[in-house]
Amino acid sequence: MQQRYRLKWESTLCLVVLLMVVLSACGNTASNNQTNDKTSTNDPSGQSKTVVMREYTDATGNKISIPVNPQRVVTTQYLDAMLALGVKPAGAASHLLEGEYLKGKIDGVADIGNPTNVEKVLELQPDLIITTEYTTPEVKEQLEKIAPTVVVSFGEGDVFEQLRNVAAVLGKDKEAEQWIASFNKKAEEGQKKLAGKFKKDETVTIYMAYDKNVLRVYGARNVGHVIYRSLELNPPEYIRQKLAKDPRFNYVYDVISMEKLPELSGDRIIMLVYDEASKDGMLKQIEQSALWRNLPAVKNHKVYFIKADPWFTYSPLAIDKSLDEAVNMLSVDPK
């Protein structure tokens, strides 16, 4: 009798233990699926394949399930950053494909328009879309129906932070750090080359002539990143004060009047001429002005003219090309 009860008790115990093992296994599987979920999808050839997914929190705070190893990425802004990371996107916005400095690097990248042509994006069958905070809610909603859509902020961080954020989405963190380290090393070499060309307190002002009547002065983004941050040249006092308050200061948004030229102009001037219309418009006005002709930088032949490509673009490969041009340009006085 006791043996029968003991066998019954042992059988019950075995069932309890087995049930606990099964529940534990289910719990572990559920936990893993939070970061490494799997989904079935069709690749462009029509074949079904399993894609490992992970959860990512983008710049808007949204938690999105994205591929661990995306194969077909479309971007509305970060073509340049992706190329720097060794990833060629399936498609990119029109304005990103225009740079001469990218010639030979973007063969095969489809044009998705600007503004974004949603139908074209759909044709490309992306498994991931990378956009910015400037994409309209209507377009973003349509893109989200095509593929996981991640927002990487363009306005908040500098070009290095943008690169790191894109790398975080693509799983290319190591490549981002390697690129930044290589760029900084090149910048240090550039500083050494220019060391004997500049006096200790010599200042550089960066202007942009645009259209018929727009004159801007730059801080430490876009054109200014290479000049003030990478090469560590001195801005004029007005810009120095702006940067002291906000290291991310880009440019004075108000149109600068030519009466401000004597106050804003440093010992050297870099003038970005946006296009041919600007050359015949605002730049012509400036050069015909007595205020301009009497500036020390103009009298001393220390004015450098640059083009929008690659200088105006704020992205990794653009600033890398701009750095090369800056060192060559500033090594000799302009005629």
Tell me the count of domains: 2
Order of H and E elements: HEEEEHEEHEHEHHEEHHHEHHHHEHH
Low-confidence spans: pLDDT under 50, at least 5 residues? 1-34
Number of helices: 15
Helicity range of the residues?
Answer: 40-55%
Task: Note the gap between the termini.
Answer: 113 Å
Average predicted confidence as pLDDT: 87
Principal-axis shape: elongated
Output the CATH homologous superfamily of the largest domain: Nitrogenase molybdenum iron protein domain
Architecture (CATH level 2) name of the largest domain:
3-Layer(aba) Sandwich
Biggest sheet architecture: 5 strands, parallel
Q: What top-tier CATH class of the largest domain fits best?
A: Alpha Beta
Description:
By secondary structure, the chain is an alpha/beta fold. It folds into two domains: 56-171, Rossmann fold (3-Layer(aba) Sandwich), CATH 3.40.50.1980; 196-330, Rossmann fold, CATH 3.40.50.1980. It is 44% helix and 17% strand. The chain has 15 helices and twelve strands. α5 (159-170) packs antiparallel against α6 (173-194), α6 packs parallel to α15 (316-330) and α7 (223-230) crosses α15. The chain is elongated, with a radius of gyration of 28 Å. Mean pLDDT is 87; it is low at 1-34.
